Amino acid sequence: MTSSFEFHTYPARLSDAERDRALKALRNGVALGRLSHDTFVRRMELVLAARRPDELAVLTADLHTEGRWSRWVFGAVGAVSGFTVRLRRAWQAERLPKLLLPAPNNPYPLRIGRDPANGLRLSHETVSRVHAELSRQGGTWVLRDLGSTNGTSVNGRRVTGAVVVRDGDQVSFGQMSFRLSAG
Length: 183
What we know:
Cell_Proc_Reg/RNA_Proc; five-stranded mixed β-sheet; alpha+beta; 36% helix; DUF1707_SHOCT-like; FHA_dom; Transcriptional regulatory protein EmbR; Tumour Suppressor Smad4
């Protein structure tokens, strides 16, 4: 005779959360260069087919994850590093020469570069002949890189195409930097 309380010898089905944790560990392993793409794909298939927690453990055993202490240390270092970058940028911004924005009623864009025909001529070897263009469009200022060799950046970010700029932004043409000013 059997009891109504039967005990199964196999564990319960894996939860989606357990599978997600294993997949996340595999993704992190690929991102950190610990797994090749082919190994990642094969292990991902095995995670999705796994029936027991020990099968998942085997698939992620060689992917040591950082502990809480390591994450805290790396997070703190990242925060301090980000602060020092912002501090350096703020320190330099006050010391940069001002670049006055053209009058808002001027319908013509301001061309910037080494060519004497430009509205703003910059005689520096890192500035292209026709480097960038600053124009007023619908009440906002737009800075457009014109295919310069050494690039244009706004607040430390490289401009690809065009970007909206404001009073106080730091702009760089090659290695020449300025702070935009409305007056």
